[in-house]
Specification:
The complex is a heterotrimer of chains A (204), B (838) and C (250).
Chain A lengths: L4 E3 L3 H26 L2 H7 L2 H31 L3 H8 L19 H26 L6 H30 L14 E3 H7 L1 H6 L3
Antiparallel strand pairs in A: 1-2
Helix pairs in contact in A: 1-2, 1-3, 2-3, 3-5, 5-6
Chain B lengths: L12 E5 L3 H4 L3 H10 L3 E6 L11 E4 L5 H14 L5 H7 L23 E2 L4 E2 L26 H9 L4 H8 L3 H12 L8 E5 L1 H4 L4 H14 L10 E3 L6 H6 L6 E2 L3 E2 L8 H8 L15 H13 L25 H9 L5 E5 L3 H4 L3 H8 L4 E6 L22 E6 L8 E4 L4 E5 L12 H19 L5 H4 L19 H9 L1 E2 L3 E3 L6 E4 L17 E2 L9 E4 L2 E4 L20 E2 L27 E8 L6 E7 L89 E6 L15 H6 L4 E5 H7 L6 E5 L4 E9 L5 E3 L2 E3 L1 E5 L36 E7 L1
Parallel strand pairs in B: 1-2, 1-6, 2-3, 6-7, 10-11, 11-12, 24-30, 25-27
Antiparallel strand pairs in B: 4-5, 8-9, 13-14, 14-21, 15-18, 16-17, 19-20, 22-23, 24-31, 26-27, 26-31, 28-29
Helix pairs in contact in B: 3-6, 3-7, 3-9, 13-15
Chain C lengths: L3 E5 L9 H10 L25 E7 L7 E7 L8 H5 L6 E3 L5 E3 L9 H5 L6 E2 L5 E2 L5 H5 L5 H5 L5 E5 H10 L16 E3 L18 H31 L10
Parallel strand pairs in C: 1-9
Antiparallel strand pairs in C: 1-8, 2-3, 4-5, 6-7
Classes of the chains: A mainly alpha (204), B alpha/beta (838), C alpha+beta (250).
Bound molecules: protoporphyrin IX containing FE (2 copies) and iron/sulfur cluster (4 copies).
One protoporphyrin IX containing FE (HEM) sits at the interface of chains A and C.
Chain lengths: 204, 838, 250
């Protein structure tokens, strides 16, 4: 009984997550290469020109992937109830050795917020990125390019803060979570503790 | 030029009138700007606000073709306000001379000078002569008071050019006139110098020569001739125009400005008698008196051993023109149009675009049997048979095109406007089959010679006896590779015998047989020297046994900071950088302005060779070594090329009057000449089209409502002449791709024309399209109380290139067939047109 | 090596455009097919094959028929160069030892950000999208030659030399302050204007766009800081509080 597994993420979701994460990694790496003229990074890609190509096409992958996440996460993320507020009030219990957290859905309030952030910042960075790349013919292009450049970089900075935390939370901070993005399953007991509402909905 | 390019920097006032140096002679602006930096004033007088005008301290807008009115007003202003340089005028000009009392000016004679014959359209110049005393020396009034003195006549003539009158003719506001006059006349002081720069804006008028004469009078009155920063400076339209003119380009002069004889000048004796100026005044050098030496040495140069005393040095071989015959540009094409020519060599020019009334020229070419076009690129002339409105099937002319090299593919000398000959080298080998001009001539010569040898012909001697020692001859007697240095040496001249100065004992050897001549001072009239062009004698010399190409010198030493650079290249005559420089000093040989000393009499001049001192001149090469005028015995007048030794304020030599008089252009907006109602146009110009008739191609319409606007033509910096070179140069085309016309905002508004619109400009003779530049650079003129609009357009475009026709065509399709009374230079700077939206 | 500069004196410029052609000749830049649009100013703007041009300014004048100014324009070789600042590609834009803002097309990734950051709207891009602009004839000046445009200019309207010397000389000639003397860390192209720079079609106070400055000063370091901070926080949390154990979760 103790090792009954339930399915939390399907294959599509897992694949898409790694597409998102992988493209993001390439974008970040090349992004840093551009930002700080990192010769070692450029060397990985071969040249600045190929690095740009990687960056641009990784951007396409990232954007598509981001779009696909909508089906998995957007509806649930938008459902924000009193339990979610409770989770936030307690900061997910991360700053206490022991904390009573209201029951959470398939993803908790933090994850919901995280997703909304990813979606928002992702759209911003993608839109601005594509604008710089493709330079659509608009009046006063200089203004728009400068704005895009600004947005692209603000978003990047935010990503740089959010994503490491996400990775930490998805791995070390929450043992057992990482396997979701590998096998898609979690132990029922594990889920009951963390996603009680969801487990209930699933009929366990 | 009397002076030279660098000399502009020495001026206090620079008057640019009839020129546009910023656009057509950009490098000259270097020196003009240097002068300005030192406080000089730049005055630009032009119908159009040019790129030169943009740099001017004073800009005066003037209707095209009214320069003499403008300058006449200045003469009047100078005389009325006593601003002339009296000492200079009295001693160095013919202002003191007395003219025959019968002389009458246009003011008292229906707009013409005395002696006019309406039928022949010529003057009998009897009444224009100078009174001589019993010694044959001109009678003078040093007080300038005699009513028959040149000075008083000048005053009388120009008193008619009042400010109101001038303003009403030129359209220049009175205040502007005064500003210009005042500023320029300020150079009448000994310590100030003013220079004048002109180009085609003065020459291309029916009164072109008189435009320049008017300025010469001003320069003499103000004492600016011979001065550093003074003079009258013709900015030549091409880098070597000066050189080609020096070497006999024009129909009426042989190399060195020796006159071309007519058939009536039967032998050398007659030639010398007719063309050698004489003087009885012991103080006049009359350098022209040396003409016998120059013509004889010239004959020796071209006919060599075949020129002997017995055969009159081959004088009979020289081509002669018929008495009174004019073979200038307009006449050539007129004759061609009338079918008088079989063949035509077009060499380095594009008359189908450059000629006044180019439409007529294009038709004239079709009357030829053959034409050889020696050119860098095919052009409107070479391809005339497939030009606009031309059916190739109807053209019988056979056209040969000979590709010629560019300047960098050949070696030789170039003489710039400052008479400075500079040697240039070949930097790359000619491309393809192209050949330098000299090689093409060499080919031609040997082929023509062979034909004469084989077939005899009517008069083979002039060709068969020509010297042609310009390189090594092959077995067939032909020169394979022409050595341009041997041409330059022939021009300089050789001693054909040992030459001694027999005036001293023992006779001093001046030259060794076979050596290059030192200079023209040693040329002889007895056939013992040869010289292809006397003014260039001294350009390629032999000093201490060493042959020196003086033109190739590149020394950078200067004299007195004036920019004379006597060791850079070589200037004719005798490496003199400023001609008439004897007029830059007072009677004692001291410079009028010590800060600007061109030459200076030095009683103890050190000869660097002999280490002995003797009196002599310091500075530039003086106009003759004679001591200054104050020297009672040996002193000489400054203007050594004039028989009387004086600067000519009164100039009876010209066809159209001893004083310049304002006449309207052939086509003008007025019905009569405001100056003298009876005579609208220059009375002595050759009219191609009259009431009695003429070719329809030569039609002109003055004061006609169909063509109400004054037009002028010009060049732009971005293109060279007709653009044959620059239209093939994409970089230039990028900057100036298409024909344009500059129109005032006022006229544009009247005509509903907007900037950038395509418009049609038409005259009585043709039409062209152009892109309108609506601008403030043209402004309507107030002329005789009416508003006169003027427009302007460049003549650098042609239908043949760019091949898609996007450039447009030459504005010379609009210009009339009419020329200056003296030179026959076409009047393309003032004519009447209409402008309409296309 | 002393910083080099061009001194442009519109006072001396006659609008002959020898500079335009000389630049093309030296840099082997092909011509473009243009049309006459009612002005001598052609091509109307800088292009990847036109590194410099003359701006013709026609304006009314109180004392004269008209006023016609000629101003030579090109890359200003700013000391604090917006283009270099924003350029993401290492080695695409760089400063030479003479102070020129030079470029290397091989390294340029064609992102075209530089033109947006340039206060003078200078950089242009060739058919391969690579940057193309005046490089102060870096190849010539490295060999001690004057740039082609300065060499050609007949009137001295474009002069080349040590920047300090130029400033000293023009000050002696009566120009208190040259345009570009101070702006953007000092421009490598100085103008001796007799009038307000505006009249000559120039910005009174050229500036790198504020967003670029903000990005450079704040956002760029923040990327590192953010990343570092987030990682450090995670680490700290791990040590101080530690991961959530199953039993802790209620
Ligand atoms: C979504 C699609 C994205 C596109 C189309 C895109 C496009 C671009 C473009 C065109 C540039 C300019 C340099 C170049 O052309 O390579 C650029 C720069 C940069 N991008 Fe992206 N990017 C995207 C996403 C991202 C993401 C997700 C990140 C990081 C999280 C990122 C970070 C950066 C950084 C740091 C730079 C250099 C900063 C700068 O110089 O502006 N980009 N990106
Ligand atoms: C390589 C490092 C990463 C790891 C180890 C990781 C791990 C995980 C795990 C375990 C989950 C499932 C959590 C759950 O369902 O409860 C998850 C979800 C998610 N990840 Fe990541 N992830 C990584 C990188 C990224 C990146 C770079 C992004 C986007 C920029 C991203 C975006 C998301 C999103 C949107 C979700 C769904 C919402 C959520 O569950 O929080 N991940 N990740
Ligand atoms: S002018 Fe523009 S392109 Fe030139 S250095 Fe300055 S910022 Fe860069
Ligand atoms: S276009 Fe080239 S030079 Fe300009 S910012 Fe991008 S990489 Fe740098
Ligand atoms: S410095 Fe060189 S590259 Fe720059 S505009 Fe002048 S000639 Fe052209
Ligand atoms: S070459 Fe000199 S004078 Fe001519 S347009 Fe250029 S800057 Fe002006």
């Amino acid at each position: 009984m103790g090792n009954q597994m339930i399915k939390k993420a399907n294959a599509f979701e897992i694949l898409n997550h790694w597409l998102l994460a992988g493209s993001f990694l390439i974008l970040t790496l090349s992004g840093f290469g551009f930002l700080f003229h990192l010769q070692q990074v450029v060397a990985i890609f071969g040249s600045a020109n190929t690095m740009k190509i990687w960056h641009n096409y990784a951007g396409i992958v990232f954007s598509i992937s981001l779009f696909l996440t909508i089906f998995n996460y957007l509806p649930v993320s938008l459902k924000f109830g009193s339990d979610d507020m409770g989770w936030i009030m307690k900061a997910g219990g991360y700053f206490a050795k022991k904390a009573a957290i209201p029951p959470q859905d398939v993803i908790n309030a933090g994850q919901k917020l995280y997703y909304l952030f990813i979606l928002f910042a992702g759209i911003a960075i993608a839109a601005s990125g594509f604008f710089i790349w493709l330079r659509p013919q608009v009046d006063d292009i200089r203004k728009w390019i400068l704005l895009s450049h600004l947005v692209h970089n603000i978003a990047f900075d935010l990503f740089m803060i959010a994503v490491p935390l996400h990775i930490y939370l998805g791995t070390l901070a929450n043992p057992g979570t990482f396997r979701i993005m590998v096998y898609g399953t979690v132990p029922l007991e594990w889920a009951k503790k963390r996603h009680a509402k969801w487990v209930q909905k699933m009929g366990y | 030029m009397t002076n030279h390019w660098i000399d502009f920097k020495n001026a206090d006032v620079i008057l640019v009138m009839g020129a546009n140096p910023a656009e057509n002679h950009p490098i000259s602006m270097k020196w003009i700007m240097k002068a300005r930096e030192k406080g000089a004033k730049l005055i630009v007088v032009d119908p159009r606000f040019t790129r030169t005008a943009a740099k001017a301290d004073i800009y005066a807008q003037m209707r095209s073709g009214t320069d003499i009115a403008f300058l006449g007003g200045m003469i009047n202003y100078i005389l009325k306000n006593n601003l002339y340089f009296r000492e200079y005028v009295v001693n160095y000009t013919n202002a003191t001379f007395l003219v025959t009392p019968d002389f009458k000016g246009p003011g008292e004679f229906n707009g013409v000078f005395s002696g006019y014959d309406e039928k022949t359209r010529k003057y009998d110049k009897k009444t224009w002569s100078i009174q001589m005393d019993d010694k044959g020396v001109p009678k003078k009034d040093p007080m300038l008071k005699d009513p028959n003195s040149v000075f008083q006549l000048l005053k009388k003539h120009y008193s008619r050019y009042t400010l109101d009158k001038v303003s009403s003719i030129t359209g220049t506001p009175k205040e502007k006139l005064i500003e210009v006059y005042k500023t320029y006349a300020s150079t009448g002081k000994p310590n100030r110098a003013g220079t004048e720069l002109y180009a085609m804006g003065w020459t291309q008028h029916t009164v072109g020569t008189q435009n320049i004469r008017a300025m010469s009078i001003i320069q003499l009155l103000l004492g600016n001739m011979g001065m550093a920063g003074g003079g009258i400076n013709a900015l030549r339209g091409a880098s070597n125009v000066q050189g080609s003119t020096d070497h006999g380009l024009l129909f009426h002069i042989l190399p060195g400005y020796l006159p071309v004889p007519s058939a009536a000048v039967v032998d050398l004796k007659t030639y010398i008698e007719k063309f050698t100026p004489k003087t009885k005044d012991p103080k006049s050098v009359n350098w022209g008196g040396n003409r016998p030496k120059y013509i004889t040495s010239y004959l020796k140069a071209i006919y060599g051993d075949k020129a002997t005393k017995e055969n009159d040095f081959g004088y009979s071989y020289l081509p002669k023109i018929d008495e009174g015959m004019n073979c200038s540009w307009l006449m050539l094409f007129d004759q061609m149009f009338k079918g008088k020519f079989e063949g035509f060599f077009v060499w380095g020019q594009n008359p189908a675009c450059s000629s006044g009334n180019a439409g007529k020229v294009r038709k004239a070419l079709s009357k030829l049997k053959w034409m050889v076009n020696v050119t860098l690129f095919d052009d409107e002339t070479g391809s005339f048979w497939k030009g606009p409105d031309t059916d190739p099937k109807e053209i019988q002319t056979e056209v040969f095109q000979l590709p010629v090299t560019t300047i960098v593919e050949k070696e030789g000398s170039i003489t710039n406007s400052g008479r400075l000959a500079q040697w240039r080298y070949r930097t790359i080998e000619p491309i393809g089959e192209s050949k330098p001009d000299s090689e093409i001539m060499n080919e031609l010569y040997f082929r023509i010679k062979r034909l004469y040898q084989k077939q005899g012909g009517k008069f083979p001697e002039p060709i068969l006896n020509l010297t042609w020692d310009y390189g090594k001859k092959g077995a067939d007697g032909k020169i394979k590779k022409l050595d341009i240095h041997s041409v330059a040496k022939e021009i300089n001249g050789y001693y054909l015998e040992d030459l001694f100065d027999k005036k001293v004992t023992p006779p001093k050897q001046l030259g060794k047989k076979g050596d290059l001549c030192t200079n023209f001072v040693t040329l002889q009239a007895d056939g013992t020297t040869s010289c292809g062009n006397w003014i260039y004698s001294g350009s390629y010399t032999q000093a201490d046994g060493r042959v020196v190409n003086m033109m190739a010198r590149r020394g950078k030493k200067d004299i007195g900071g004036l920019g004379l650079y006597p060791e850079w290249g070589w200037a004719w005559p005798l490496n003199r950088r400023i001609i008439y420089n004897r007029a830059s000093v007072d009677l004692n040989g001291n410079p009028w302005d010590p800060k600007r000393a061109v030459i200076k009499w030095n009683p103890n001049k050190l000869d660097p060779k002999t280490k002995k001192t003797a009196p002599g001149w310091d500075g530039d090469v003086p106009d003759g070594p004679a001591p200054p005028l104050a020297d009672e015995k040996a002193g000489k007048y400054p203007f050594i090329m004039r028989p009387d030794g004086m600067g000519a304020i009164f100039g009876p030599g010209l066809a159209d009057g001893p004083f310049p008089e304002h006449y309207e252009p052939l086509e003008c907006p007025l019905s009569e000449n405001p100056m003298s109602k009876k005579q609208r146009i220059n009375p002595t110009i050759k009219l191609f089209y009259t009431k009695e008739g003429g070719l329809p191609e030569d039609i002109f319409l003055s004061g006609d409502t169909r063509y109400p606007y004054v037009a002028t033509t010009y060049r732009v910096t971005e293109h060279w002449q007709t653009g044959v070179l620059t239209r093939h140069e994409p970089w230039q085309m990028e900057m100036m791709p298409q024909q344009f016309v500059e129109i005032s905002k006022e006229l544009a508004a009247e005509k509903g024309i907007k900037n950038g619109d395509k418009v049609t400009v038409s005259s009585a003779r043709g039409k062209v399209w152009a892109i309108a530049w609506v601008t403030d650079r043209f402004k309507p003129f107030k002329v005789m109380n009416t508003t006169v609009h003027q427009i302007g357009l460049p003549w650098c475009f042609g239908w043949q290139h760019p091949e898609d026709g996007s450039g447009g065509d030459s504005s010379n399709l609009l210009t009339p067939t009419i020329g200056d009374a003296n030179t026959m230079i076409p009047e393309s700077k003032a004519f009447m047109v209409n402008v309409e939206r296309a | 090596m002393a910083r080099k500069a061009l001194l442009i004196s519109p006072e001396l410029c006659i609008g002959c455009r020898g500079c335009q052609t000389a630049c093309k000749a030296w840099n082997q830049l092909p011509a473009t097919k243009t049309a006459n649009k009612g002005s001598a100013e052609n091509p109307p703007d800088l292009t990847p094959n036109l590194y410099n041009k003359i701006r013709y300014v026609e304006m009314p004048s109180e004392t004269n028929t008209v006023r016609w100014l000629f101003v030579s324009q090109r890359c200003m070789h700013c000391d604090d160069a917006g283009c270099i600042k924003i350029c993401p590609a290492p080695g695409a834009l760089f400063k030479t030892k003479e102070g020129a803002t030079a470029f290397n097309k091989d390294n340029c990734i064609g992102c075209k950000l530089c033109v947006a950051a340039c206060p003078f709207n200078v950089p242009r891009y060739d058919e391969k999208e690579k940057i193309s602009k005046c490089n102060l004839c870096s190849d010539r000046i490295a060999d001690g030659l004057a740039p082609a445009c300065a060499k050609t200019c007949p009137t001295g309207a474009i002069r080349y030399g040590d920047r300090d010397e130029i400033i000293g000389k023009t000050q002696k000639a009566g120009y208190q302050k040259l345009y570009g003397q101070m702006d953007l860390g000092g421009l490598g192209v100085l103008y001796a204007f007799k009038d307000s720079p505006k009249i000559y079609g120039m910005d009174e106070h050229p500036q790198i766009p504020e967003t670029v400055v903000f990005w450079h000063k704040v956002l760029k370091p923040l990327a590192y800081l953010g990343l570092g901070g987030a990682v450090a926080a995670s680490l700290l949390h791990y040590i101080a509080i530690g991961p959530k154990k199953d039993e802790e979760v209620k």
